[in-house]
Design brief:
Blueprint: H1 3-23, H2 39-52, E1 56-63, E2 69-75, H3 83-88, E3 92-97, H4 106-120, E4 131-136, H5 141-145, H6 182-194, E5 198-204, E6 214-218, H7 226-246, E7 252-253, E8 256-257, E9 268-269, H8 278-283, E10 288-294, H9 300-320, H10 322-338, E11 341-348, E12 354-367, E13 374-391, E14 394-401, E15 403-408, H11 413-421, E16 427-428, E17 433-447, E18 458-472, E19 477-480, H12 486-493, H13 519-532, H14 534-546, H15 548-551, H16 554-563, E20 578-582
Parallel strand pairs: 3-4, 3-5, 5-10, 6-7, 9-13
Antiparallel strand pairs: 1-2, 2-4, 6-10, 8-9, 11-14, 12-13, 15-19, 15-20, 16-19, 17-18
Helix pairs in contact: 2-4, 4-9, 7-9, 7-10, 13-16
């Protein structure tokens, strides 16, 4: 097929759709409802707002992998533009992040339209009296500049858009713990400086078909501290759904089916955004996180309008609930400092479900003309409204009891750098010493067969613990665990946690044995070792008797003795972040 012709055809179809909507008398006749601007055009639009309105400012922050700075657009009716001062006077910070996946540009367009709308009436808009708005125009700048027509094959418009991967071909919505990109490093700097109270990431969905244009992920309430989780579940999220319905835009929780190939009628579950995701990362800092997911098969103009309505609704709720939002965060931050144990590794509770009113389309099957096999599709001629199972509850599989301190040897520079970038206090050791610490040994883990976002990701990690005397060197780092936002330290430094630094492969060097033996040299020594250690000899003979393959393998037998002898290196699988003191 001639793909240039295909591109032209798609552009014509989208243009005809836009003309049709305009002819129908829609008030949404701005080009931003039908095409997404280039990155240069996006920044030009915000620069125009900056120069036109004194209560708006576009500020460049650190670099991105594109070489360009990450921009932050701020609407501040107070005219302060200084995060510390705004928090001090009681303003609530609403943070909108766009273009983490530039092929999903609804939020990019909607935010420009919304910012114009707010600034045109800023002096009379009381919603902005106690709310400051921060907008990242485009997070994945490099992906936005890699425009194409066709990478989002399932998506209805716009004619051109950016690409999901950035310059390193990494998905930035998986980068918030490993922090491989300058984009994420710069955004983390902004987030830690501004400490927003509410964070919204704008996306377009994939997956099932249904009647809603907008679906919403609210940060999973069980994994938030109770004061925030209760408020999110009982107040914040319901108010957003209510406001959207009042605007004629009924919304549904994000449609995440229990199993990949399931249809919604079999049940959907609350989405669990672990810390690698933007909103999951924000949850570690007690920020109320949301993800807007418009539906890929709805026309682009409708998706942009729906996102704009969500932004309006979000501001209305944040404004009316400003004090409650800040109070819940304040209590959660205080709990961080005194909490002794942290639930981790959340798993869906399949024993608990609720009934959710759902508007979908009937799934039917037919024989595929391509494969000759059965393929299901959603029949728009058979819409339905019914109650379906909804699984909103997660249970922690593990609980971590926090130490007083973590000790990080200076050799592991990336780890200490990331902790510093996330604004945690590190105490530099001033002199060599020896101390008692709880030490982990990696007992088992699984690893992906192929690379995942630039790493061979580990999972299902399990450790053995023991108390040892360890050497502490001048220049090593002590990290106090009695700080705000301690959950970040737990989730990254405890190797069993899903998004720990260990699981992202930062410590893979410890998993390889460095010294070995030659069998003909070690054989006489092995004999002496068994003679001097009766328990080892007993276990060795028992293993030979019970394991035929072991009994036939001379190297395995010698290695067993070697591994249980003083000659075996003690650093193999020893996790090099140590726990000191009990809280």
């Amino acid at each position: 097929m001639n793909y240039n012709f295909l591109h032209l055809f798609i552009s014509i179809v989208c243009f005809v759709q836009s003309i049709s909507v305009l002819a129908s008398g829609s008030p949404e006749n701005d080009s931003l409802y039908y095409t997404t601007p280039t990155y240069a055009e996006v920044i030009k639009a915000y620069k125009t707002l900056d120069s036109t309105y004194s209560k708006a400012r576009l500020i460049p922050y650190g670099k991105t992998d594109s070489g360009l700075p990450l921009q932050l657009f701020i609407i501040d009716k107070q005219g302060l533009f200084e995060p510390r001062r705004l928090h001090e006077i009681g303003n609530t910070i609403l943070f909108i992040n766009n273009g983490i996946h530039p092929g999903e540009p609804d939020g990019i367009n909607a935010s420009i339209l919304w910012a114009r709308e707010l600034l045109e009436n800023i002096n009379t808009n009381t919603l902005l009296d106690k709310v400051t708005i921060c907008i990242v125009p485009v997070f994945n700048i490099d992906g936005a500049m890699n425009r194409n027509c066709c990478s989002r094959v399932n998506q209805d418009g716009p004619p051109e858009y950016g690409f999901r991967g950035n310059s390193q071909n990494l998905d930035l919505n998986r980068d918030f713990i490993k922090c491989d990109t300058r984009n994420t490093q710069s955004l983390i700097s902004i987030l830690r400086q501004w400490d927003p109270d509410v964070f919204l990431d704008t996306h377009v969905s994939d997956g099932a078909d249904y009647q809603y244009t907008m679906t919403l992920i609210s940060s999973q309430s069980d994994k938030l501290y109770p004061v925030m989780g209760k408020y999110m579940k009982e107040t914040f999220s319901p108010l957003l759904f209510k406001r959207m319905k009042q605007k004629g835009e009924e919304m549904c929780p994000y449609v995440d089916t229990k199993n990949y190939d399931d249809i919604p009628e079999k049940g959907i579950r609350a989405f669990l955004e672990i810390p690698r995701f933007a909103s999951g990362y924000c949850g570690l800092f007690n920020i109320f996180g949301f993800i807007a997911e418009t539906h890929m098969l709805k026309p682009f103009s409708k998706r942009v309008a729906s996102t704009q309505k969500l932004l309006r609704s979000m501001l209305e709720v944040v404004s009316s609930e400003s004090e409650n939002i800040r109070e819940a965060r304040s209590l959660a931050k205080k709990e961080d400092v005194v909490r002794l144990s942290f639930p981790t590794n959340w798993e869906l509770d399949t024993t608990y479900s609720e009934k959710l009113d759902f508007k979908g389309y009937t799934a039917v099957s037919k024989t595929s003309k391509v494969t000759g096999l059965e393929q299901y599709y959603y029949d728009h001629a058979q819409p339905y409204e019914k109650k379906i199972p909804y699984f909103p509850k997660y249970i922690a599989a593990d609980t971590i009891h926090a130490p007083m301190y973590y000790l990080i040897p200076q050799a592991w520079l990336k780890v200490s750098t990331l902790i510093d970038q996330n604004k945690f206090r590190l105490i530099t050791i001033k002199e060599d010493s020896v101390t008692t610490a709880e030490v982990y040994y990696i007992e088992s883990f699984s690893t992906t067969d192929g690379p995942y976002e630039g790493h061979y990701l580990h999972s299902n990690t399990r450790v053995r613990k023991q108390v040892e005397q360890i050497k502490v060197s001048t220049g090593d780092y002590l990290v106090p665990v009695f700080q705000e936002n301690n959950r970040y330290l737990i989730e990254t430094l405890e190797p069993e946690c899903a998004d720990s630094y260990f699981n992202w492969g930062f410590f893979d060097g410890i998993l390889q044995q460095k010294e070995w033996f030659s069998g003909y040299v070690f054989e006489p020594l092995a004999e002496q070792i068994l003679l001097s250690d009766s328990l080892l000899k007993k276990n060795f003979e028992s293993k030979k008797a019970s394991e035929p393959e072991f009994a036939k393998d001379s190297f395995s037998q010698l290695y067993y003795i070697y591994k249980h002898s003083p000659y075996y290196e003690k650093s193999v699988n020893r996790y090099p972040v140590y726990r000191i003191g009990k809280r």
